[in-house]
Amino acid sequence: MAEKEEKGEDGQVAEIEKKITEAFEVFDRESNKTVDVREIGCIVRSLGCFPTEAEVQELLEKIEVEEPGGFVHLEHFLPVMTKVLLDRRFRPIPEDVILHAFEALDENKCGYITKDDLVKHLTEGGEPFTQEEMEDMLAVALDPVTDTLHYRDYRTKLIVDETKTFPFNV
Amino acid sequence: ISAWFCSCPPAFKAAVLIQQWYRRHVARLEMRRRCTWRIFQSIEYSCEQDQIKLHNFFSYLMDQFTPSSSKERDFISRMFISGESYKEAELEKYCDYETIEVPDSYTGPHLSFPLLPDHATALLEAFQQKQQLHARYVLNLLHETRKHLKQLPNISHVSTCYSEEITVCGDLHGQLDDLFLIFYKNGLPSPSKSYVFNGDFVDRGKQSLEILVILFTFLLIYPKEVHLNRGNHEDHMVNLRYGFCAGLSVHGKKILRMFQNVFCWLPLATLIDQKVLIIHGGISDTTDLDMLEKIQRNRFVSVLRLKKRKESSGKPQIQAINGESESGTDAAPRLSLQPQSAQAPSTANRLEFSRWLRQTVQEQIDTCRRLVDISESEPEELTYSSMVDSETELYFLSELCQSFQVLDILWSDPMPQEGCRENKVRGGGCYFGPDVTERFLEKYSLQFLIRSHECKQEGYEFCHSRKVLTIFSASNYYEIGSNRGAYVKLGPDLIPHFVQYQANKTAHLLTMTQRISRVEESAFRALREKLFAHTSALISAFKSYDRDNTGKIALSNWATAVESVLRLGLPWRMLRPQLVRSAEDGMLEYKSWLDDLAMEQRSQEHIQSSLLEVIYRNRSNLETIFRIIDRDHSGLISFEEFQQTWKLFSSHMNIELTDDGINDLVRSIDFNKDGNIDFNEFLEAFRLVRQGPSDDTCFPAGVPLLW
């Protein structure tokens, strides 16, 4: 993030807080500075972070969640999230790391993964995808003729999309 | 966590990484989707606000403009009397259809009355093949529709015991494909299939006329099963603005007149089993169903055309322009334009009115007082005895109350917060909270409300603890892929069942990413247009952050500045990457940024750029005004009329322009020298603006001056 020197710490923090507030308000359906707790993961990710589900949970434990209904107030979210951004936690996954990850699932090192293997790994291993998540990914990623995922192409495609809309150079 | 993670097998770790990365991607998409939605909605509602500004412009004219010549007087009165009322006989004569001949060469459907199901089928097939219905039949249909609507009450009562299921549809906005989809999926109206269409049949979409023809046809064939509610777009002023008037043919004038006189007769609400109320917009804390049942709904040709004013003495005076009168005699209760010379209502109406008045006097006083906010007046003034003397004034007050009743029904939106406040975003109606809903439902022993008026991504949405249901039937409303449409079915148990659809096949095939991108592109194009239209104001705002005149502004300040000018309430920092291509050191060179925006938007013509900017910003208002002037809807207005209008408009908007500026402008339009302007071309020229080569007129004129 490149802010001018003279702005200093305070300026940086203020700007971060504004960004967080904006992202928060996009999900604030009732315009009352609260969001559904289930949207927190989405908000954190759209601020440029790449947390795992476990890390999102960890974060939520630090934030007070109001019952009933499971709502999170902006005033509780803001300090926690500001620290996350200042500490530069949950950094983006570098391109080569993702490539290696796909390669790890490609046992025969042929440059692609079959649909069945992909489904097995991602719905049974790691932090399993829901059926909906899996279907959505397959819809874009899979080559319908061969039912395989050519991961280099897929990764490139998504990365281009990302850089176009990555709002924060944090 | 990390220690445990390292001890996992590689496949597991890989899965975690991929999932992590993918979930980030999905979250970004979701954010983009929501931001896009926000953009469209904020622009749409700010347009509706413009509508109110426009009508304030007319009021301003009424206040300020003292016609010096008869010509000018004519001109002004023409602008305002376009909603003039017609007595029955006049209407028949003026909008007659019998003299219109249908040529042998006409291959479209023929209608004869009374209508039969075959006619409906023929129409559906014809419209599917992009044929048109001959003007004679359109007019005939409109006359018959009007006759039918006149005998309907303000609130239609429907029962589920006659037709097991009732289907309720929301806004269609001229999107014929959606109506076809609904009929395809749900079946045509019939004795065993009831429908309620909840307003906003017209405007925006290209096939408003076809939709009206189909709906009116079914209305006449199955009067017990088909019910129409009026929406805020079934309103003359709104039609002029949103383009319903464009594209009507030779007999367009007659047809348009008839529409005015049909729309005002549309019922205001539908009540199912006395338990579910269907209205187009919503309610307010003063909505009174009993009053709504009693008012003469046809008087409100355009609910936007009224204005409340207070004289310096503090006593309220009301000017209202209403639609057609009921009485066949000469003394129609038409209110004049000048406050002083307000005419007394006709004898017949006066008696009727007094009778009604005596029945509900105190209630009316309280309601009117609340609505009109006459807190400045002495309470004693508003006793019954004082009103007997100023019955005329009370008449106007009551007119106002009634107008507000209708306005609220057609324009209001629900809000999550409690209470009831003015709907400043739309410029009409209220925002009503869950407490208002609760009280209203209790007062009239209702179970829930169904309304439309707002576009919803899934075609429907509940709020106020499922007591208010919004149903919206125009899919892809903002752009292909922007939203689904839906309709709701209610059986005797009154449990809603929803059916969703999207009228464009390709929308299904597009992936979520592609759909979002497409809609997003559209949204940002609209947003860039808006930014361009406010160039001068933006420069001023940026300069206030750039005291040292470096030509740069910090990105963080950019967001604040833009919001202060545009006031759209958008998350500018989230939207920035799509709007600002490059910034060094977190600083933006705003001049070149605005130039880039302008590059997309300029005209070929050598038109003075500040004028261009102004026109661009106001083009939809101008369009509306021009359409009013062009009374025969031919697309031509005289040069003089153009000049006059522009003068009035610019003086109201405080735009400084020389006559030369106007003349240059007009000359640059290729109009034939017979003194007529093809204003469609004129407006088109400003819609698609492209940059001419070279020179200083590259910049909005404001820029060189400031630099």
TrEMBL record, chain A:
Coiled-coil boundaries: none
Keyword Cell membrane attached: no
Protein keywords: Repeat
One Gene Ontology MF term: calcium ion binding
Gene Ontology, cellular component aspect: sperm principal piece
Keyword Repeat in record: yes
SMART domains assigned to the protein according to its UniProt record, in alphabetical order: EFh
Residue stretches spanning the membrane: none
SUPFAM superfamilies with a match to the protein in the record: EF-hand (SSF47473)
Name of the molecule in the record: EF-hand calcium binding domain 2
Organism: Geospiza parvula (Small tree-finch)
Gene from which this protein is expressed: EFCAB2
TrEMBL record, chain B:
Pfam families: EF-hand_7, Metallophos, PPP5
UniProt key word Lipid biosynthesis: no
PANTHER family: SERINE/THREONINE-PROTEIN PHOSPHATASE 5-RELATED (PTHR45668), SERINE_THREONINE-PROTEIN PHOSPHATASE WITH EF-HANDS 2 (PTHR45668:SF2)
Provenance organism: Geospiza parvula (Small tree-finch)
GO MF annotation, one: Hsp90 protein binding
Enzyme Commission number(s) from the entry: 3.1.3.16
Signal peptide: none
GO biological process: detection of stimulus involved in sensory perception; negative regulation of MAPK cascade
Cofactor(s) the protein needs: Mn(2+)
Protein name: Serine/threonine-protein phosphatase with EF-hands
Chain segments carrying region Disordered: 314-346
